[in-house]
Design brief:
heterodimer, A: 550 residues, alpha+beta, PH-domain like, 3 domains, seven-stranded antiparallel sheet, five-stranded mixed sheet, B: 650 residues, 22 helices, 14 strands, acetylation (chain A), protein phosphatase binding (chain A), cell projection (chain A)
């Protein structure tokens, strides 16, 4: 397919661009296969806007006389307005954008066309391999092994080819366990708590059905992670009633009779369309231009967004508490084990593991617990809060996770190596990106699409020193401890950096960040200078003593 | 009383046993056992209500709510003891004479001269001079010399030059409580001014020539503009109701060249109830997100804060952008008027955003113009209907502005919290009484100490590390956003849940940056010393001089500012389910305490803690501080889990 066929009017002049908090600018609008480009003809600081078509969530058009207006709402929640003279041009442009922003073939997406303008220092596709993670693990314990049972994606289509499993369980048993778990997602190691040797595993629901099916291998696998005499917790992300209902559809939960050393805790984490609706309502509230305080608070409340945040954080804290404080191993699952399960396991690691609070560690976490673990990014992030097409598989699951990280970050502002911008950047790229990292729904699909060969990895770009410096938290001081966030409503706030990002003037907050960076930078410079002088002085003094000897 | 249990509001499991003492000025709870013997001190004047609840098997519960938003729950074993404590506290918390207040017995061990110096720190004459008056338009009037015209005004009042004593007196007779229009803020760049007064006694048709002349004079004092705004900060309905009582608002037809404007800020009764409702939300045990947001909205608190801010923004805009003078009033002109004038001044003039300037602002718009501190904050036993969080709201407005303009203020959040605390504490004489006249009669300056001097002495604790006097945010007028979608008015947990440390961010960016800045300063000094020594050494070497310094490296080892300060961080209760599981002893896990930067440095500098070591009103945070004051053992808190907040999530 040629993109040119879809672009009837590639260029329009005298277009006026309106963005909140910026003066309207006049300029030229160009459409390419993947971008909408606007450039003002002002010589001084030519204002340019490059917008990926895949970032466009919805488009509205209206006319006043022959002046057409297009309102473009983006997946990163930005809203811009273009006034385009000429009805035909406007209609052409609108329809082109509509088609180009909703291409259904993955291989037509921009990552397959994008050619980086930077030198690749490290290929991000191989930056975070599970093998490396395992190497790290085997330095502290030998209770686990790497299994390649899923090498051909035949045991579990949504799992990566390798998984870390208890050493005592062989591949044959894993195959049987896979048959007993929804989508073949057998329990695998998610996190190993070095301090006390406790493990966090994740899986999907067991297929007990109404007649209480059992699987000896599953019971053995789950139990093999317990030390003798110790107990474990199964954290089910569904309420009991929902878990019971699931039995009618062949799903279910671990019966205590068959898993006597395990205690089940049900925590309710919302999923799918409920989250999407909540997301839509929240964004609507945030874009409400009225000056009324009451309406704002009731809309915020009605969106339920912060309630989801609170529930999710609570569940993650609970998992972390079981591991660190109760000295118990934990198994987390919901139904499919691809959404709320991953939210809980990855957040628990943020709380427990200082490594996950570094930039590289967090990237590794996203790769391990989200990309490799088979969170269906392509489905979940197909549309954002402005879209009218309501597919039931769209949900801001990853965004909720990022926001929870932000909430913890806000409570421990010196314990994270990355800053808020880093989280926002990940949110943007999950929804629209020039990189292939978030394409596809699992490793299997990514392998089929040959993403590592045909596209650039986000990590190749982010981990370059030039880019990294933008994402560093100046206040970071490595904190090796477990950080327990507060989940009280008073402690949780709306993530303004995402939801009010385009509505608020950011100048004053940016200036504050700049001040913070400068204060730290100056301090470090001085430290270096003082140290150098001290050394120099010590040398000179030593010389002097030598001179004196004879 | 012995064997009293102090309950943690958020968790019934964490109670500590100790002894309760009542002194002439404080309630003191001392924990039994353990090396630390933590103490909790509460000033009687901070007590806002005491509630005796039904006796249970374990004893008689007593609930003490404080004006600084601390809530203390005690269980006293004997009903009779409890009753005695209750009766005593009721009496002690409601003094009837000023002499009973703490400031008359409080002695920070300063000599007479230091005390006098302290009172001179904030000088309003100096402030008016700074603004640029007196000048060719404004003069100081001695008409209120002996409080003869208005007993709630200061003796020295600035009025337009063309306003004669006759006009002033005439105008004062036409205004509630004779509070005639007087200068609050003068903008020397464009001659526009903010004046304040009470409502006119216009009724349905009354006029007063002198009052009309007075407003005319204010307009003439600003030659650049041909009209003035008259801002009535009340809702229109309230103002109209006042007309029936012979009061009311200015009729545009009777006054030449005024533009009249209502700004609906509710009255003190509405505000009191609103705060009450919000505090009930804060006190909820493990509220859901919906409970909290719904309760917050229902209280209307943030709506009221926004109304005050909007009024301030309107006036600041009129003065700065239109160059038009504004006369502000409400009913009596001492509550809403004070709020609005001070918010507007703060927006207009960067000076008021400095530490000293903020003190001056409160002294000018609140203290000198007769804001009724005694009535509003219930220092002496009085009419509960007079009590209202008027200045609390102003302080919150400032905090909301700090959130929006992080580099614009020289002071930090702690400064605001401590001022709020001392408005109620009566530890210093600044906020006693209802007017300057009363304070003079009581000889406050001779008999008590000034808060401002105390805060100034500890100013390093109150600095905002992001403030630079040459930063763009510290110049000129601030233009805040007003729509919720552009700027959020947030719930201020640092104030209203101030004593629930578990709810706050566990690491303070402000303290971290201040520690870094302090270290930077030391490094600068060391750098200088080193450079000097290096130069000397080089000189001596090149001259083959054998004289050398054997002195030891003087440079201090600064060490990490983080290492000796830590605060325990323990998990909260995330689930009910865990309780039933045989769990290990809760006292484990000291090593887990997350590092909190310099948290303890700041605590020891809290005003009420450092004021004097034995008589402090340790409401701040004695619970987190070791008796020795300085460095704090990392395990101190985790041992008792006292700092933990617990949220039942089930």
């Amino acid at each position: 397919m040629e993109f040119a066929e879809l672009i009837k009017t590639p260029r329009a002049d005298n277009v006026v661009l309106h963005c909140p908090f910026h003066l309207a600018v006049e300029g030229t609008l160009c459409l390419t296969g993947h971008h909408l480009i606007f450039s003002s003809r002002r010589q001084d600081n030519a204002e340019e806007l490059w917008l990926l078509h895949s970032n466009i969530d919805s488009i509205e058009k209206r006319f006043v006389g022959s002046l057409g207006t297009i309102v473009i709402k983006c997946k990163d929640l930005r809203i811009i307005q273009l006034d385009i003279p000429g009805m035909e041009e406007c209609l052409n442009i609108a329809s082109s954008i509509e088609v180009l922003s909703t291409l259904d073939s993955v291989t037509l997406m921009y990552p397959f066309f994008y050619r980086p303008m930077f030198e690749v220092l490290e290929d991000g596709w191989s930056s975070f391999l599970l093998e490396q993670e395992f190497e790290h693990l085997s330095s502290v314990t030998n209770e686990w092994r790497l299994s390649y049972v899923n090498k051909e994606f035949s045991v579990c289509p949504s799992y990566p080819p390798v998984a870390i499993v208890p050493k005592s369980i062989d591949d044959e048993a894993l195959r049987k366990v896979a048959l007993f778990r929804h989508g073949g997602r057998f329990p695998v190691l998610s996190y190993y708590h070095k301090k006390n040797g406790m493990a966090m595993m994740r899986s999907s629901q067991p297929l007990t059905g109404t007649n209480g099916r059992r699987c000896k291998e599953d019971e053995k696998l789950v139990n093999s992670t317990l030390r003798s005499g110790r107990r474990g917790f199964v954290i089910d992300t569904r309420p009991l009633a929902l878990a019971q209902q699931a039995r009618a559809k062949g799903g279910g939960f671990e019966q205590e009779v068959h898993y006597p050393q395990w205690r089940r805790i049900h925590k309710y984490i919302e999923r799918f369309h409920i989250l999407q609706e909540s997301f839509i309502k929240l964004v609507e509230a945030c874009n409400d231009q009225s000056h009324n305080m009451d309406r704002w608070l009731s809309k915020l409340e009605a969106s339920n967004w912060l309630s989801h945040i609170k529930e999710l954080l609570t569940a993650a804290c609970l998992a972390a508490q079981c591991i660190d404080r109760e000295g118990a191993s934990v198994l987390v699952h919901g139904s499919e084990g691809t959404d709320s399960t991953l939210q809980v396991t990855s957040l628990a690691q943020i709380i427990l593991d200082p490594r996950c609070r570094t930039i590289r560690g967090f990237e590794a976490l996203v790769v391990r617990e989200w990309l490799q673990a088979g969170h269906p990014f392509q489905q979940r992030c197909a549309q954002s809060a402005y879209s009218n097409s309501k597919q039931k598989w769209e949900a801001p699951v990853f965004l909720l996770f990022l926001e929870c990280v932000w909430q913890i970050h806000r409570q421990f502002p010196c314990s994270f190596e990355f800053n808020e911008q880093f989280l926002i950047m990940l949110f943007e790229h999950a929804y629209a990106s020039q990189f292939g990292t978030f394409l596809g729904n699992n490793e299997n699909e990514r392998a089929k699409l040959k993403l590592p060969q045909k596209t650039m990895s986000l990590w190749s770009w982010v981990n370059r020193p030039e880019e990294l410096s933008r994402f560093q938290n100046p206040l970071y001081e490595a904190n090796s401890l477990v950080i327990w966030p507060s989940v009280a409503p008073q402690s949780l706030q709306l993530w303004e950096g995402v939801f009010l990002r385009w509505n608020r003037p950011s100048k004053f907050l940016e200036e504050a960040e700049e001040e913070r960076i400068n204060i730290i930078k100056y301090n470090k410079e001085l430290q270096a200078k003082v140290n150098a002088l001290r050394r120099q002085l010590a040398e000179l003094e030593a010389d002097e003593e030598v001179q004196e000897e004879p | 009383v012995e064997n009293v249990r102090l309950l943690d509001r958020l968790s019934s499991r964490r109670a500590v046993v100790g002894t309760l003492y009542l002194t002439a000025t404080h309630v003191i709870f001392v924990e039994n056992g353990s090396e630390t013997r933590k103490e909790t001190w509460v000033l009687h004047s901070q007590i806002s209500s005491i509630e005796k609840q039904a006796t249970t098997a374990t004893g008689c519960p007593l609930l003490i709510r404080c004006k600084n938003f601390q809530v203390i729950q005690l269980v006293i074993p004997q009903e009779r003891d409890c009753h005695d404590v209750y009766i005593s506290l009721i009496r002690l918390a409601r003094p009837v004479k000023y002499e009973e207040l703490y400031c008359f017995s409080f002695n920070p061990k300063l000599d007479k001269e230091e005390r006098e110096q302290g009172w001179k720190l904030v000088d309003l004459n100096e402030e008016y001079n700074r603004m640029g008056v007196p000048n060719s338009y404004w003069q100081i009037s001695d008409v209120n010399r002996d409080y003869g015209v208005c007993d709630s005004y200061p003796t020295e009042v600035y009025v337009p030059k063309s306003a004669t004593a006759h006009i002033i007196v005439g105008s004062s007779k036409f205004r509630s409580r004779r509070r005639f229009p007087a200068l609050s803020y003068y903008c020397k760049d464009n001659n526009a001014s903010i004046c304040r007064s009470s409502q006119p006694l216009s009724g349905f048709s009354a006029r007063c020539l002198e009052d009309e002349q007075m407003l005319q004079a204010i307009r003439k004092a600003n030659p650049g503009s041909d009209f003035i705004y008259v801002v009535d900060t009340r809702p229109k309905l309230n103002a109209m109701a006042n007309r029936a009582a012979g009061k009311g608002y200015e009729n545009e037809d009777n006054y030449s060249n005024i533009k009249f404007q209502f700004i609906g800020i509710e009255n003190i009764h509405v505000m009191r109830n609103s705060l009450q409702k919000m505090l009930e939300v804060c006190e909820l045990k493990s509220p859901s997100m919906s409970d909290f947001l719904w309760g917050l909205e229902n209280s209307g608190w943030l709506k009221h804060i926004k109304a005050i801010m909007d009024a301030g923004i309107f006036i600041a805009k009129a003065v700065a952008e239109e160059g038009v003078s504004v006369l502000v009033h409400c009913s009596d002109g001492w509550d809403r008027t004070a709020q609005v004038c001070s918010v507007a001044s703060l927006l207009l003039d960067p000076y008021y955003r400095t530490m000293k300037g903020f003190m001056v602002l409160i002294e000018k718009d609140w203290v000198s113009f007769g804001h009724k501190f005694n009535h509003r904050y219930g220092n002496l036993d009085g009419d509960p209907k007079e009590i209202s969080p008027v200045i609390d709201q102003f302080i919150e407005c400032v905090w909301q502005l700090m959130e929006q303009f992080p580099c614009a203020f020289e002071f930090n959040e702690r400064f605001l919290i401590h001022i709020q605390h001392h408005i109620y504490s009566c530890q210093f004489g600044n906020f006693l009484c209802n007017s300057q006249k009363e304070r003079r009669e009581l000889k406050i300056k001779e008999r008590t100490y000034s808060l401002w001097a105390h805060l100034w002495k500890n100013r390093s604790d109150y600095l905002n590390p992001l403030y630079r006097s040459d930063h763009s945010q510290t110049q000129g007028t601030l233009h805040p956003q007003i729509a919720p979608c552009n700027f959020l008015y947030k719930f201020w947990s640092g104030m209203y849940n101030r004593f629930e440390k578990g709810l706050h961010p566990r690491q303070s960016v402000t303290d971290y940056l201040m520690a870094v800045k302090e270290e930077t300063q030391q490094l600068e000094e060391e750098l200088e010393v080193l450079q000097e020594r290096l130069a000397n050494l080089q000189k001596s070497q090149s001259g083959n001089n054998k004289v050398k310094s054997k002195q030891q490296d003087q440079s201090k080892q600064f060490g990490l500012y983080t290492s000796n300060n830590s605060l325990a961080n323990t998990p909260q209760e995330y689930s009910n389910d865990l309780k039933s599981f045989p769990s290990r002893s809760p006292s484990q896990g000291d090593e887990d305490s997350a590092l909190i930067l310099t948290q303890d440095n700041l605590k020891s500098s809290d005003p009420d803690l450092s004021a004097n070591s034995d008589q402090e009103s340790g409401v701040e945070d004695l619970s987190c501080r070791s008796p020795s004051g300085g460095g704090c053992l990392p395990s101190e808190d985790s041992g008792k889990d006292s700092d933990e907040a617990v949220f039942l999530a089930g």
